[in-house]
Amino acid sequence: MHHGNLIHPLVEEVLANALTMVNQSAADELNQINAVTQISNQMKKEGDMKKSILQNNENDTEERGSFNDLQQARCHWIQLDKLDLQLKVIQSTIAYVIENFESMRLLWSFGKNYEKEKLYNDQRFHDYCTCFQTALKMIMEFVDEPRDMCKLIRNIGARHFFYNVYEPHTEEMLKLLIR
């Protein structure tokens, strides 16, 4: 009976801590959704305002579209896909970073022993760029839906190891732990 008196307060404390963590997680999720929704609503208001200004200007016969930054990025991304240039742009961007910012080379395993001629033949480089492209494609699919965008980004963050799009320091830490 003495053990029951010791365990009961401990169980209550653990349950209270778990409940606090669940409530905090739910509050964080709600805050993220509200923030993205607020930004989305602001962008829609700005777009509507621009649209109404264009409609009120009867002298202007030229049709103009009103895009926010995310919509422009999405259009550009779609155009790159149609031209089959998404992967090439990602590869050239990462190659540019590796070539011009020596301190950044340590972030990627394929950048540590950098040789310009060998980089594009490195399978790790191709795999990383392909995974990065896949993650960007998924994000672009959900640009118009703030709630779904939050959920997707949270899931990518929670399961980033699956997509191989992750913080490079994680890889370095793993190497140190294995030693």
UniProtKB/TrEMBL annotation:
Q: Which residues cross the membrane?
A: none
What InterPro entries has UniProt attached to this entry? Globin-like_sf, Globin/Proto, Mb-like_M
Q: Known Gene3D superfamilies for this protein?
A: Globins (1.10.490.10)
- SUPFAM superfamilies according to UniProt: Globin-like
What's the superkingdom here? Eukaryota
The UniProt GO MF terms for this protein read: heme binding; oxygen binding
Name of this chain's protein:
Globin family profile domain-containing protein
Organism annotation:
Brugia malayi (Filarial nematode worm)
Q: Which gene encodes it?
A: Bm18571
